[in-house]
């Protein structure tokens, strides 16, 4: 664009790639992990994941990571954990609560604060790595301790976890763009959606989902909404499919230009992670992505949450139905839908051909 | 990538392979080299190869990189080979394959997983409450010491800099003189061309330049350079604001602590106390520019926010009261008025010409202005007014019209084809500076790979 005035060479482009924020969503569905136990027990998977996280942090000093558990009925942060002090403050004394709790915002403890006292001192382990390890492990055990047997359903709340991830990414990007001071006035919320705005220093966010559960048709709408949000914010969603198969996660990675790998040998999780998911956006420019062969583009219907090949679509709001809705009224927008001669044989083809011939003769 | 192109790092590249072998035995060193010195793509390669059980065939690596990323790939692989991290092994009957060299791979794995008994990430020391230093205290200490060093260097330019009670040890002065950053003339010191270049660098680059100087001098002080380097990389992995024990340090490293204290890189209450604090100068040693921008420091009051505003009419306004910053600014600008919190001046042809004649380049001036631009200025795209940038460059060009590059000339090729192949190769690995098709000559900055390429070729041919 600006090639005419030759101002390109004034922009001292920093060849240092921006730091990246990796948000990992770990599917902690106990049912699925129990099935996987002979090949890849959860403990081994977490050990592999920790090495992967350390590798990500080793890439760049300012790289960040967040881990969210997509549990059976809720989604929870495993790292960084919401700090207890702040929630107490917000609940208890209104005096301090006014500061933190105004927008219901919670502070997240990150590496640099008081928690260090709790982590045992060890000269053989890089402290930030060690900190994440202890935090993640204690959060995991806490998560399973608070899980009651009744709440164990064979599903997982990916949609909730994705939403949490998006909020966290948003918060971190705002914090990042204010600390780098290059943008003080610009609204960081608007910035990503505007492709023309030049951002001197941004966080490079991406989401990685380690999925073990099967189909998630009942969450179709919230999942698709988060996918479209990611697409708009250009946040790639990478899927590491350890077990099961789900239609929508394929679509998620496809729509956001992420990587989709279904593991054929779950035992080799670490190598899959290191090779396929570690490179961030700036190195992916140069790398051939591990290709997903065919993407399943099927959708789930809005009425029974069934995955359908061919369905009915409301002409007004584009809702999908597996069978014509009752009374031919769209369940979403309430429009009366004229089904026409649905079910009639399309015997028109032959007639049209004749007509055309006639026209040609004349 | 800028990290690896820093001039100081060429020193590391020049080390013999055995030194690298010993260096890489420390996990903290492996981690620091990985983090600080490798280009982004090379990091991806290293991580991909780290946990692979058998070497990766060269063709596989080539297939992994897109065709338009070939240049970056070759650059990355080259650097990895130069740093003795990656080696291409040829086993009979098998295709050529890449694998990580062993002390490096093992150490990096250890760094990622923890464990072992190497103590290379520092042994924390528990102090009683009243002795602890706060981070602001450490920052203040580091700033005072470092500005003391810079002030000593700039001191000769005529500006009278209050030394703020910093007394430089004789060792630091000798080091500065031996690095030819200053020249001692009787009682006064004169800053050299290299010294000016040094002063205009970013803090992190300055610290590294100084430490590399220290390393080069280490041998004359009977210090083991591997010991010194390993200690420096360990410092980079320490946590700011925590005391560390001296118990596990070697004699060399304990001696170093005192010298590093003079620079403000570490703090110790007294030379014989049993613990030390790393300052921000130390803990950011192995961070890259991105991490530094938000955490570096210059003047404590304004948190190293930039302070310079430059307008299209060449006027400069600097919101600072630091004598050092003013003295530096005075190197290339004519200062007119001084207020309690700000100085105003102008960049003129004379002031730039004078700076150039002192050995400062226009690029240094421009990058100094860019990195210290006031936040209000930094919002502009581009940051500096283009007219000013161009004019500063033009003023420099008036004087010097030649640029010297140290390198090697290849000539006397028999045929055009024989000429073109190595020439293209040199271009691909990014060492080609100049070529002349008609005379079949080309000029490169580095000859090892090209020579190896030619040898390979002639070996195959004959």
Automatic annotation (TrEMBL), chain A:
Q: Which GO terms describe its biological process?
A: nucleotide-excision repair; regulation of DNA-templated transcription
The organism of origin for this protein: Letharia lupina
Coiled-coil positions: none
GO cellular-component term (any): transcription factor TFIIH core complex
Q: Name one GO molecular function term.
A: zinc ion binding
**Keywords tagged on the record:** DNA damage, DNA repair, Metal-binding, Nucleus, Transcription, Transcription regulation, Zinc, Zinc-finger
Write out the ranges of the annotated region (Disordered): 82-112
This chain belongs to which protein, by name? General transcription and DNA repair factor IIH subunit TFB4
Similarity comment: Belongs to the TFB4 family.
Q: How does it assemble?
A: Component of the 7-subunit TFIIH core complex composed of XPB/SSL2, XPD/RAD3, SSL1, TFB1, TFB2, TFB4 and TFB5, which is active in NER. The core complex associates with the 3-subunit CTD-kinase module TFIIK composed of CCL1, KIN28 and TFB3 to form the 10-subunit holoenzyme (holo-TFIIH) active in transcription.
Q: Which Gene3D superfamilies match?
A: von Willebrand factor, type A domain
The job of this chain, per UniProt, is described as: Component of the general transcription and DNA repair factor IIH (TFIIH) core complex, which is involved in general and transcription-coupled nucleotide excision repair (NER) of damaged DNA and, when complexed to TFIIK, in RNA transcription by RNA polymerase II. In NER, TFIIH acts by opening DNA around the lesion to allow the excision of the damaged oligonucleotide and its replacement by a new DNA fragment. In transcription, TFIIH has an essential role in transcription initiation.
Where's it found, cell-wise? Nucleus
Give the matching InterPro entries. TFIIH_Tfb4/GTF2H3, vWFA_dom_sf
Is Protein biosynthesis given among the entry's keywords?
Answer: no
Q: Where is the composition biased (Polar residues)?
A: 89-99
From TrEMBL, chain B:
Annotated Gene3D superfamilies = 3.30.70.2610
Q: Does the keyword DNA damage apply?
A: yes
Q: Taxonomic lineage per UniProt?
A: Eukaryota, Fungi, Dikarya, Ascomycota, Pezizomycotina
Its signal peptide is none
Return any one Pfam family short name: Tfb2_C
InterPro entries, per database record: Tfb2_C (IPR040662), TFIIH_p52/Tfb2 (IPR004598)
Q: Which GO terms describe its cellular component?
A: transcription factor TFIIH core complex; transcription factor TFIIH holo complex
Q: Where in or outside the cell?
A: Nucleus
Q: State the family named in the UniProt similarity comment for this chain.
A: Belongs to the TFB2 family.
Q: What is this protein called?
A: RNA polymerase II transcription factor B subunit 2
Check the record and name the NCBIfam families matching this protein: tfb2
Respond yes or no to whether keyword Lipid metabolism is given for this record. no
Any single GO molecular-function term of the entry would be: double-stranded DNA binding
All residue ranges annotated as the Transcription factor Tfb2 C-terminal domain in the record: 390-455
**Keywords for the protein's UniProt record, in alphabetical order:** DNA damage, DNA repair, Nucleus, Transcription, Transcription regulation
Gene Ontology process terms (BP): nucleotide-excision repair; transcription by RNA polymerase II
Top-rank lineage group of the source organism = Eukaryota
* Role played: Component of the general transcription and DNA repair factor IIH (TFIIH) core complex which is involved in general and transcription-coupled nucleotide excision repair (NER) of damaged DNA.
């Amino acid at each position: 664009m600006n090639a005419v005035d030759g101002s390109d060479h004034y922009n001292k482009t920093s060849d240092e790639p921006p730091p990246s924020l990796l948000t990992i969503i770990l599917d902690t569905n106990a049912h699925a992990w129990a099935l996987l136990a002979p090949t890849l027990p959860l403990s081994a998977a977490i050990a592999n994941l920790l090495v992967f996280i350390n590798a990500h942090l080793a890439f760049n000093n300012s790289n960040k990571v967040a881990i969210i558990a997509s549990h059976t009925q809720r989604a929870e942060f495993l790292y960084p954990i919401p700090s207890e002090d702040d929630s107490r403050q917000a609940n208890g004394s209104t005096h301090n609560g006014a500061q933190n709790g105004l927008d219901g915002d919670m502070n997240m403890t990150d590496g640099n604060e008081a928690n260090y006292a709790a982590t045992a001192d060890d000269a053989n382990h890089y402290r930030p790595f060690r900190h994440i390890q202890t935090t993640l492990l204690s959060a995991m055990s806490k998560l399973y301790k608070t899980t009651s047997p009744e709440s164990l359903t064979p599903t997982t709340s990916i949609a909730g976890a994705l939403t949490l991830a998006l909020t966290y990414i948003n918060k971190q990007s705002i914090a990042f763009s204010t600390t780098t001071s290059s943008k003080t006035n610009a609204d960081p919320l608007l910035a990503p959606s505007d492709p023309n705005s030049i951002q001197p220093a941004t966080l490079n966010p991406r989401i990685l989902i380690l999925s073990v559960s099967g189909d998630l048709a009942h969450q179709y709408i919230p999942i698709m909404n988060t996918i479209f949000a990611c697409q708009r914010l250009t946040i790639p969603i990478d899927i590491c499919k350890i077990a099961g198969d789900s239609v929508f996660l394929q679509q998620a990675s496809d729509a956001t230009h992420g990587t989709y790998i279904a593991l054929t040998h779950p035992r080799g999780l670490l190598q899959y992670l290191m090779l396929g998911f570690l490179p961030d956006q700036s190195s992916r420019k140069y790398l051939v992505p591990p290709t997903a062969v065919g993407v399943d583009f099927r959708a789930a219907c809005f009425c029974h949450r069934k995955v359908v090949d061919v369905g009915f679509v409301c002409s007004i709001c584009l809702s999908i139905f597996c069978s014509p809705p009752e009374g031919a009224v769209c369940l979403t927008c309430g429009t009366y839908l004229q089904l026409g001669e649905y079910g009639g044989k399309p015997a028109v083809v032959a007639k049209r051909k004749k007509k055309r011939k006639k026209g040609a003769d004349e | 990538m800028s990290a690896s192109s820093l001039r100081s790092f060429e020193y590391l590249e020049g080390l013999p392979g055995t030194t690298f072998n010993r260096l890489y035995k420390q996990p903290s060193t492996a981690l620091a080299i990985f983090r600080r010195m490798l280009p982004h793509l090379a990091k991806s390669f290293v991580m991909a190869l780290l946990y692979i059980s058998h070497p990766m065939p060269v063709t596989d690596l080539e297939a992994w990189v897109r065709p338009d990323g070939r240049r970056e790939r070759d650059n990355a692989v080259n650097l990895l080979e130069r740093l003795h991290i990656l080696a291409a092994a040829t086993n009979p009957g098998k295709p050529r394959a890449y694998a990580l060299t062993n002390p490096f791979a093992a150490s990096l794995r250890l760094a990622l997983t923890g464990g072992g008994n190497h103590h290379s990430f520092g042994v924390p020391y528990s102090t009683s409450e009243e002795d602890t230093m706060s981070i602001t205290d450490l920052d203040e200490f580091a700033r005072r010491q470092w500005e003391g060093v810079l002030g000593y260097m700039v001191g000769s330019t005529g500006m009278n800099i209050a030394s703020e009670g910093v007394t430089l040890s004789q060792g630091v002065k000798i080091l500065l003189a031996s690095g030819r950053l200053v020249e001692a003339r009787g009682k006064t010191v004169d800053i050299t061309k290299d010294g000016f270049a040094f002063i205009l660098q970013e803090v992190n680059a300055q610290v590294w330049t100084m430490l590399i100087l220290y390393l080069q001098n280490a041998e004359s002080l009977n210090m083991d350079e591997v010991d010194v380097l390993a200690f420096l990389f360990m410092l980079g992995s320490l946590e700011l604001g925590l005391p560390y024990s001296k118990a596990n340090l070697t004699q060399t490293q304990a001696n170093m602590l005192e010298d590093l204290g003079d620079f403000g890189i570490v703090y110790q209450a007294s030379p014989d106390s049993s613990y030390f604090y790393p300052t921000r100068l130390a803990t950011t040693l192995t961070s890259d520019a991105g991490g530094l921008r938000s955490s570096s420091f210059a003047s404590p009051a304004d948190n190293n926010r930039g302070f310079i505003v430059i307008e299209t009419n060449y006027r400069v306004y600097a919101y600072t009261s630091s004598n050092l910053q003013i003295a530096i600014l005075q190197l290339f600008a004519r200062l007119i008025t001084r207020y309690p919190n700000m100085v105003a001046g102008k960049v003129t042809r004379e002031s730039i010409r004078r700076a150039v004649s002192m050995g400062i380049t226009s690029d240094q001036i421009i990058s100094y202005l860019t990195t210290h631009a006031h936040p209000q200025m930094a919002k502009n795209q581009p940051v500096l007014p283009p007219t000013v940038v161009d004019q500063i460059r033009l003023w420099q060009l008036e004087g010097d019209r030649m640029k010297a590059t140290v390198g090697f000339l290849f000539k006397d090729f028999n045929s055009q084809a024989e000429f073109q192949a190595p020439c293209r190769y040199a271009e691909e690995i990014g060492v080609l500076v100049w070529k002349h098709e008609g005379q079949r000559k080309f000029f490169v900055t580095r000859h090892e790979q090209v020579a190896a390429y030619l040898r390979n070729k002639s070996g195959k041919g004959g």
